[in-house]
Amino acid sequence: MDAFPERSRGLWRLTVLLLSVSSLPAVTALLEGLYCGTEVCYDVLGVSREASKAEIARAYRQLARRYHPDRYRPEEPEDEENSHTKFLLIATAYETLKDEDSRRDYDYMLDHPEEYYQHYYAYYRRRLAPKVDVRIVILVAICAISAIQYVSWCSSYNKAINYLVTVPKYRIQAMEIAKQQGMLSRTKEKGKNRRSKEEIREQEEEVIRDIIKNKIDIKGGYQKPSLSDILLCQMALFPFYLSRYVAWYARWVYRFTVCREEYGEEEKLYLIRRNMKLSQAQFDSLEENTKQTFLEKQLWVRENYEVQGPFKKLWANQRPLPVSAGL
Q: Start and end of every J domain (predicted)?
């Protein structure tokens, strides 16, 4: 008769043990300092794990209106601190569950409580990650640098035009072109349409400025700004430039290394520019007679350039605003 009660007590102990073991994951999954701490975020909002985003948002709004510090009036002074803590917990639960990625990490923590380090890593990686996409930040920075580049180049170009307007040589030639094309004939109106000398002078200055802009090709650092030269376009066109350079280099090696062709004038000037370590814009700013001097001295040959000295000084002594005038 005593065997049955003893067996019942054994089954009872086994049942209690199984229930205790089955409840361990739910307890150990709640880590202090992560998400809602020892509280389940779903329970904080009073929703199930299958709740939709709309249900979660609705539950949050209801609880937020109830426990918001500006609305909640506790009966006891000590309840005020508890209500503030409760409100922060509600906000934390909502921030955790409203985002799909954060909610997925939280659900994984509830289902896999044994992976402590993985949960801490996922939580702090998300909290410390930048809120804005790094690619967007880089793109905005490149656009800002490009805008500053373009504005700076426009300013330099305008300074060059202002300088050339004061040069008598270009000013006189611009006036002659303006008279030939009848661009200044409008300054001779009579009667009611007659303008003051100041207005006529302003129009002449504007006409001269426009002619100089259109007829003079400024080279070097003061050349006319182009959108293709800014950083953003240069980066976008980099694959094209790279492929073109590879094709050019392969053709150069084939012509002058494999086939042993003679250098043309263009190739000689390129080698001279490379020996002088000048950019294309800097080399273009040199006067034509200076380039001819380089060709006569055969400075495309490295040995000749080293023997005859640093011809880069000749470039430094050029005019500050080298131009190719079409006046």
A: 40-110
